[in-house]
Amino acid sequence: PPCRRSQSERQRGSRAAAPIGRVRGFGLFDRAMPKGGDVHVPLARAVDPLGNPALRTARSRKVQKGEDTSFETPDATWVARRVDGRGSAGDGGTQDVTDSDAVVHFSAFGLFDGHGGKACAEHCAATMLGHLLHALDKPGPVNVDDHPDDAFEARLPGALRDAFAACDAEFLAKDIHSGATATVVVVHGRCVTTAAVGDSLATIDLGVSCGFAAPAARLSPEHRLDTSAFERERIVACGGEVRATAFEDGKPVGPLRVWPGGLAVSRTLGDRDGKRGGVVSEPEVSRVVVPDEQPGFRITLASDGLWDAVTVKQAAQCSGRLATAAAAAALCKQAQKQKDNRDDITVLVVDALADPAHKDPFFVKPPWKTAFKVKWPLRGAPGKEPLLDDPESCPPPSARARWRLEAGAREEAAAAAAAADA
Question: What's the pTM?
Answer without folding.
Answer: 0.83
